[in-house]
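note to self: dont lose this again. the chain is below, predicted strucutre after it. 203 aa total, dont forget to put it in the shared folder this time
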Amino acid sequence: MVCKNQRSLKIHQSKSGCSRGIVTEQRTDLSETSLQGSVERRIETLTTLVYNIGKERFGVEERKERSNTKQTPNRREQKIKQLRKELKDLNRSKDEVEKYLHETHSDKERETPLGYCPRVGEEEQPIIEFETKEPTWKEVCEVVKKARTGSAPGYSGVPYKVYKKCPKILRKLWQLFRTLWKKGTIPESWQKAEGCFVPKEKD
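---
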């Protein structure tokens, strides 16, 4: 039986005699069994499990649109609304878009030394050594605590609210962070980004 929320879970437990400890043990066994393989794969599996189980039990909360007090949208807002309707109808190929982004956000001469410049002063040697050890549990908790609950989720689709309310999931994620930090690798899913091209309003 799948309980859709906390209330239905308590009703199920009272009727069937299913104890909270057994439920917790079953969830732990599920996560431990599923989180196998390399650390990169475990990161993918963890976020996928969290999203799918949360979606199955509680559904997906749609982002509420902000009420616009303006009676008539300006030209920029009209253009954005039009673009959102045409998101699936790109006039350019993927190769053309990637080529444009590469040329715009890269510099062919970035590795070329600039040479001596009298207006640039010499930098002093740092007094305090830069901290390079893996993030501590306290640091991770502080970052998650300060993050806005309504912040847009990343590539995994899991919002901050999950990690705020579920410290055991956060601790599991932190343990995977430490392993990645020691290996010095970045998972492929963390190297992906999504963008929406919005035209700038001309003068």
